[in-house]
Amino acid sequence: MSEKNQLVNDMQALLGPEKVISSKLERYTYTYDSSFLSQLNEFYPDVVVCPMNTEEVQSIMRYAYQHNIPVTPRGAGSGQTGGSVPVKGGIVLDLSGWTDIVEIDESNMQVVVRPGIVHADLNVALSPYGLFFPPDPGSSKMATIGGMVGNNASGLRAVKFGNTGQYVLGLEVVLPDGEVMKTGGLHSRALKSVSGINLTSLYVGSEGTLGVITQVRLKVLPKPPVRGILLTLFSSLDDAAATVLEVFKNGIIPSGIEILDDSGIKAANKFQPDLKLPEAEAALFFEINGSKAAVDFEGQQVKEIAEKRASSVEWATDAQRMAKLWQGRAVIGAASARVKEGATRIFCGEDVCFPMAKVPEALRRIKEIGAKHNTLVVIYGHIGDGNMHTAPIIDPLKPEEVQAAHRVADDIHQLALELEGSTTGEHGVGFTRSQFMVAEHGKALEIMRIIKDAIDPKGIMNPGKIWAER
Amino acid sequence: MKTTYRIDFAEELKKCVRCGECRANCPIFSESKREPDSPRGRLALVKLLQEGKIPASVELSEKLYGCLLCKTCAVNCPSGVITDEIMVGVRDYLDDVLDRNIIKKLVLRGFLTRPALLQASFSLVKLYQKTGLNDVLTRSKLIEHLPEQMSVGAKILPDVSKQPARGRIPEVVKPYGEKRFRVAYFLGCATNLIYPDVAVSGVDVLARHGCEVVTPAVKCCGMPHLAYGDTDTAVQLAKNNIKILLSAQVDAVVTDCSSCSATLAESYLKLFEPGTDDYNQAKELSNKVYDLSKFLVEKTGVQPGPNPVNVTVTYHDPCHLKRGQNVFKQPRELLKAIPGVEFKEMKEADRCCGSAGSFSIMHHDLSMKVLERKISNIATAKATVVATSCPTCTMQLSYGLKKHGMAGQVVHPVQLLAKTYQKNS
Fold it and tell me: What are phi and psi for residue A213, nearest 5 degrees?
């Protein structure tokens, strides 16, 4: 019997056949996430398993450790950097079916969940308690909490509420050898702890390279009772960026400040015609939430600031209109291709983060990079924290356009480093950014590697990610 | 991949950026939680096939037939991927290159193209039910020993003892009062044989709204053929029906079945090359096709009778009506216009019930899981009547209510409207 068949048989013996996916056809559907690079390659796993409890994950890891088999944890596969793609084959752990909410601890403002719970579903479950988990990825409807922790995701509300890591109080992790560890205290329900080296923080954003996260204890917050969205249109990107800075200077921290460039506005209108965004160089969406008095007051203040430069201002408090505006912005990632007939948006070099003061320059230079490579780049994203999304719009069936898009992505990553930013603000490194890690981190990358080798000496956890091949 | 069903696979498939948004709204994925059962997974496999990287196979075919064709992924796709149409197209291709199941072939080409034969076969079903054989087999559990799809079909199929609609509706029904429209009533197979009262009510209601109603001798609309990849037969049916309906010289073609209206108005256009006579005729027909509720609300205005119908009603949106034709306000308006009706919106009213033609028979366990959620939403709405505009949805929902021991009736909106003209309703 071949080694691969043996692996499949052994997994079936460990978990039962219903939790094992072995046919080549079905395994193909685990070769990709939404990164363009994963679609240009075929990184087949040898087997896919769908564990539903910690003991099952332990048994898989013990086996993998013993037999030196790579293991790649996977949530919804909605990532954009190939983080959940098994570039070295082996076992894919599909954790997206393990969706249990173990406990909602209302009085202690925390929730304990399994890794497969989807972000939006968690917030639906928290809503009756008047609570919510604030980070808001555009992929809320499909992103799993496990994936969000693994990538330290953030999204549209990071300006006020920060990223996932700020809410992770503790983790249950199955280590590469199958042992289980709890971070953040064995029995703790505390909202703060500085007891010992912060291993929780080490695992947040480690992209499955240090073990398998099987349980997450998250801090949650009271759901703000009122929100409003100020939609503002500008005839120049500089005016939009200047408005954001002036809002901050006035001591206002909106929950989100989002931008769409001219192409993004067109794409949003094509996806949702009833949005009816006026044509402009840039649209800003300010979301303000909190008590009614605070929202009314801050909304008015932001409106007055915006009116100094904006060509059009709309203050929306109607639930349907707000949902449409926010959704219109949230799905622009995939909808941006609508701006050009016959074209597709590809995910590469898509979440660079710039220092706030350099955002206007960055926006201008991204446009120049697109023009230089004759590639339309739609710009949108979280201007409130400098985290910009850049979407090359190409025909993927034309090799010359694909090559140009790769050059665009390289230049945009280099620009982020040149302007003292980061190559990734929220999507992670995966295998699509690893070539920039030395330039971004220098000696720190070596220390990361030492930590990785200490925890995963056999290098079986999600190999080929974060660190470029040695 | 060459197919009769007109779709450019390469152009459509390249739109999928694999963002995974479809995982959030696919009724099948939400039950299985496995990527191969997601629209994104299926599209990835079709792309492999289209690029020649994998051969057509039974395993592939089974995966692609796991889609309900409910269009939920398509209407919510930010990239505009028409997954359901891609599935119809690829089934057409697979049908050409793989041997089709002989029973399927017999049903699609034998019975569903011959209305008289189909009706005769239903007489046998009627006999099976009337003799009590069904009850005997069910009570003795012998039914479990029948081939799975037969035993499932026997469980789901309601009492078909009523006379088919075609024999009960005159060829031409004169309008009450002044003639406002001449209308062709497209009598679908399921309505005719399983729910004939819907058509009888539909024709009567149209006549009461000033319509002269003709019921041409059409054949099956072709939806089952499209769903099972037999597009060549669908083309023959389309040509036949287009010819008959256009020659009827009517202002509108109206049907109570959302699958029939979707096929006549939308799918036929995918069967012919634009610019050809066939296409132009399909387009001419498409412009005349109306769902029954839409016609009554938009063209005639709903004029209920004087007798109240004192029931609490909720409405289930058939996939092919809401997402296929953007018709969802009109049935609700019609229901709300009926005196006595208290309308209660159910949660996820437009979520697929899992019926999808014969999906409930071919993929029974999965279909029942999808149905569970719908039944739970119906229960929460606390309505005594569920209205819907599709005979297979009616069949599925009725089965679901019965299975869960829930009282309640499933009807077409027009059946409630028809009661307002009857005393003692």
Answer: -80, 120
